[in-house]
Amino acid sequence: MRIAILGFGSVGRGIARAILAKNLDITVTGLADSRSGIIDPAGIDLQTALDQKENGGPCGSPEVSPADVVAKADYDVLVEVTPTNVDDGEPALGHIRGALGRQKHVVTSNKGPIALAYPELRALAAANGVFLKYEATVCGAIPLIHAMQEGLAGNTISRLYGVFNGTCNYILTRMAEDSLTYEQALAEARELGYAEADPTYDVEGIDAGVKLVILANTILDMQTTLDDVERTGITLLTPEALQLAEDQDCTIRLIGEIVPEAGVLRVSPRIVAKAHPLVVEGTLNAVTVETDLAGDLTFIGKGAGSTETASAVIGDLLYIRDRHVQGS
Amino acid sequence: MKLEMKDRPGQLVAALQPISAVGGNIVAVIHQRETPAVTETLDVQIVLKLPEGRLSRLLELLREQGVNVVRIDEERLLYECTLIMIGHLMHTDLSDTVDRIDTTGSAEVTELSLVMPAIASPSSARITIRSTTRTEMKKAIRILRGVAEQKSLLIIEPLEGA
């Protein structure tokens, strides 16, 4: 199977390393970062590209743009793993449209295009007879979308809730453990690389909100946007509040919740009993799905990370390869 | 409730039967043998749960059985919910915040723990509300949300409802 990778940051490099380390029968014929690109029908030397990138250079030639890779490279699947833009989904949205229009499958980890334009993209994929897969957009390594679409097919989901943001979970874990203030815990998360320089996207619940929108729109037959999510972040939490919860064998977690029948999408700090399966430590994610046939299921795993997110992308790639790839 | 009945075989069963007849649930029966037997009656305390609005029918049935009801202690507020509030709780009139729940008549604040770490920095409080019904609890939480918005307080609700 031949793939083209757009984006050579943490996720893109994780995919490249996994392809080099394992015999996955995947050839990379196109590769682009924000500054450069390579097209090579015979297969790109991924180790060289990784070395160049890790030495601070571009992965390829500045004359080749991401759009060139989408339009001209010879691939079966476009792997779109550039950073998320929740405002208009660009430039990823245009690249995904371009690949689907060329009758190429698309696998993405990019939340923007899926949250903003899923119905259109799904219709475009269907019209061109190709797959659009996006497991990596929600909860990193946890195969939540696959589980809900395949394993739980036939179930009615009455409620879905959980910890969707590892950064917030780390901050709250640390505040509870050592009575840190929010600011102290955030500083520690930054030092460890768990929080961005501008943490707004995580700590205000936007990231968790976008994930709820993706699940609501792609699996629960809802039509929602980020504006429909009732959203409260964790920036105002105090160590005293965590202690007050602790006094009752509870703690506080940032919980994303969907109640399809009531049309509720909500991200807010909630009091949770410490014995509850959703109370996970550190940067882990955890999601409980309430269903009619299967009962309640809780999924726990790593929500971010280079290799972990690559795992979700590779799962999608192999799903497509096993069902539908021409010319490989 | 505390009942008084004739000290004869079969009387206790006769007194308990109407409870299940009205859909009630017996939690405990305390039989006090040591009461002075001058009146040839027996004192029994029964703790029970009744669906709303069934109490008067139960009293009627007990009277028909010749059972005298001495005392009824009603625990009205069955639903409990604990929340945490963060913000300038004192400066935004905490007693008014509590009053807004209490004046509903069907829900009330039964416990409040307040931590004020330093002057001018936000305080945190754990607040327990009890109510007569689940619907009243939802109403009380809605009121609290409204107050929180108005007073710029952060309300942290439990993951599971009341």
From TrEMBL, chain A:
Kindly list the positions annotated as binding NADPH: K111
In terms of PROSITE patterns, this protein maps to: HOMOSER_DHGENASE
Family (UniProt): Belongs to the homoserine dehydrogenase family.
Q: What is the lineage of its organism?
A: Archaea, Methanobacteriati, Methanobacteriota, Stenosarchaea group, Methanomicrobia
What EC number(s) are associated with this protein in UniProt? 1.1.1.3
**Record keywords:** Amino-acid biosynthesis, Methionine biosynthesis, NADP, Oxidoreductase, Threonine biosynthesis
Question: Which pathway, metabolic or otherwise, does it act in?
Answer: Amino-acid biosynthesis; L-threonine biosynthesis; L-threonine from L-aspartate: step 3/5; Amino-acid biosynthesis; L-methionine biosynthesis via de novo pathway; L-homoserine from L-aspartate: step 3/3
Pfam family name, one: Homoserine_dh
Name the species this protein comes from. Answer: Methanoculleus formosensis
Q: Where does NADP(+) bind?
A: G7, F8, G9, S10, V11, G12
Q: Which GO terms describe its biological process?
A: methionine biosynthetic process; threonine biosynthetic process
Catalytic residue positions:
K211
Positions of L-homoserine binding: E196
Concerning InterPro entries, the annotation shows:
Asp/hSer_DH_NAD-bd (IPR005106), HDH_cat (IPR001342), HDH_CS (IPR019811), HDH_short (IPR022697), NAD(P)-bd_dom_sf (IPR036291)
Main enzyme class: oxidoreductase
**GO MF annotation terms:** homoserine dehydrogenase activity; NADP binding
The UniProt record lists the Homoserine dehydrogenase catalytic domain at 143-318
Q: What is this protein called?
A: Homoserine dehydrogenase
NCBIfam families registered for this protein in UniProt: PRK06270.1, PRK06349.1
Residue ranges occupied by any Aspartate/homoserine dehydrogenase NAD-binding domain in the UniProt entry? 7-134
TrEMBL record, chain B:
Q: Highest taxon of the source?
A: Archaea
Q: This chain belongs to which protein, by name? A: Amino acid-binding protein
**Which source organism does the UniProt entry give?**
Methanoculleus formosensis
